[in-house]
Amino acid sequence: MENIRLNVPLLRRRVPNLTSAARSVGLRPATVSNLSTGKTPIGRAEVRTLVALATLAECSLDELIIRGERVEMIETKIKTLDLFAPLEKGGTVGLVARPGMGQLVVLTELFHRMRNDGYVSVLLKPKGDYPGVDDLVDFADVVVKSIDEAYEELVATGKNKDIVFAADRSHVLTGKVYELHERLENVGITNVTTFLLDLKGEVVDEDLPFGPLETLWHFDADLSARHKYPAVNPLYSTSSVLEGAHADQNHFTIQQRAQKVLRRYYELRSLVNVKGIDKLPASELPTYKRGERLEAYLTQPFYVAENFTGIKGESVDLQETLADVRKILDGATDTREIQELTNIGSL
């Protein structure tokens, strides 16, 4: 099957306020979001949906749909991110979280890890006083105060280095971030991977919080409250890397199996919290236990938090993560204690 997907960068540039625009032509924002990340393949989209998007972007269907392009993944060696919603190199990732869920810690850790992989991190410093921003500033290679300053730095650095760039949602609302992307493309700079933050926690309940994105990371209040870090929800986080004909089928299959077990585990966990584990049907107990172990395994100590946790940071290659998750799903760890799987690297 031909590898086709939505031209997300074009859509971002042409329709900055996509949520309102989509509703104005009768499209659900969630539909547009799923097409953007690839959760809904283009081949399953209704013709009227694609025509409506092309009309909004004032482009042809040939311009709206990209054919034959490969998607390159950035391996972070953070298990839950690489497994469920991996980064697309040169794409844009939105972080959806309320304050205190750990999004700044995750981004600080990524700055640290990606520097070791040769990336240069550029931070457009957010306005206002937010806990954790100072730590992020300390780990950024370059800190800028305006979009224009960011443009100059990205152009100068992007000629020789791959870049990760982070900005707050306030610059999305003004359309400045997408104007920046267009300016960079016009001068041939396409190796910038962008992270968009929502430091005020205003977009948690929105269907399309940042407009069309290649990757979306939803942080989870329950995981955060139970100190299951990184608290990224494995069911609602999405990525274009795992969708379409270009996707690695082994990765996709294991991800789907893991999501199925975790989805049922979360349902059963609600029952256990109310009635106790003794009330679970015997047939559901293996799923519950494996979901519990998988959730524990997906926690991971970070290098940037070593001084606070006293636990050495861990990195796990994607292939090792996939092999470990398969073992958990197949029951190879059924006799191991939950604590043995919590805050570790690989099995």
What does this 3D model show about the protein?
The chain is of the alpha/beta class and 347 residues long. The protein folds into 3 domains: 4-67, 434 Repressor (Amino-terminal Domain); 92-213, 3-Layer(aba) Sandwich (Rossmann fold); 249-341, Bovine Mitochondrial F1-atpase, Atp Synthase Beta Chain, Chain D, domain 3 (Bovine Mitochondrial F1-ATPase, ATP Synthase Beta Chain, Chain D, domain3, Orthogonal Bundle), CATH 1.10.1140. The protein has helices at 8-14, 18-24, 29-37, 47-57, 61-64, 79-84, 103-116, 133-139, 147-158, 170-173, 176-186, 221-225, 249-275, 285-297, 306-309, 318-329, 338-341; strands at residues 4-6, 65-67, 73-74, 87-88, 92-96, 120-124, 142-144, 163-168, 192-197, 215-218, 238-239. Strand 6 (120-124), helix 8 (133-139) and strand 7 (142-144) form a beta-alpha-beta unit. Helix 7 (103-116) runs parallel beside helix 8 (133-139), helix 9 runs parallel beside helix 11 (176-186) and helix 13 crosses helix 14 (285-297). The longest helix has 27 residues, at 249-275. It starts with a strand and ends in a 6-residue tail after the last helix. The model has no long low-confidence stretch (mean pLDDT 89).
